[in-house]
Amino acid sequence: NIFSWTSMIDGYGKNGKSYEVIEIFTKMQKEHQIKPNYVTFLCAISACAYAGLVEKGWEIFESMERDYSLKPRMEHYACMVDLLGRSGRIKQTWEFVEKMPEKPNSDVWAALLSSCRLHGELEIASIAAGELFKLCTNGRPGSYVALSDVLAAAGMWDCVNEVRELMKLRGISKDAGFSWTGTDNGP
């Protein structure tokens, strides 16, 4: 049934087996005549994002409505923003966001901001952060940190300080990072 197939697709995707995801996704439809549902599509597109399979992810996204009459939901749009953004296609990602049929939610803006951070795209990062801050008045520390990182990479230290001051004013703090180390000799 669809739940078993979706679970396999999700499991393979989460374990970095993106090519297997595509194979299972195709086999499910062609050999077993099982139609993917919203979650199946989300898992398949996500696997494409992690593997950098932009064209395949785009093809899967477009097939939702074209082949299955499933109107993509906001989480599918956020996943596509992640797919395009991870690949470094920031301008194409921005155009995709601008053409969305609904107003983007915080997940879409966060995915765009994350991609801008990854690829050092300052201008679009500022727009994404602004939109994200409007939607998340209670604050998402990761969004502030991502914007701060983009600004720091561009050497805009005054702006970095402004972001940090804004975090203080809003009572938002970044969780402290930590790590574990171990030895082969035991504790």
TrEMBL record:
This is Uncharacterized protein. One of its GO terms (biological process) is RNA modification. Keywords: Repeat. InterPro entries: E_motif, PPR_At4g14850-like_plant, PPR_rpt, TPR-like_helical_dom_sf. Pfam families: E_motif (PF20431), PPR_2 (PF13041). PPR repeats lie at residues 1-36. It comes from Opuntia streptacantha (Prickly pear cactus). It comes from the Eukaryota. GO terms for molecular function: RNA binding. The keyword DNA repair does not apply. Gene3D superfamilies: Tetratricopeptide repeat domain.
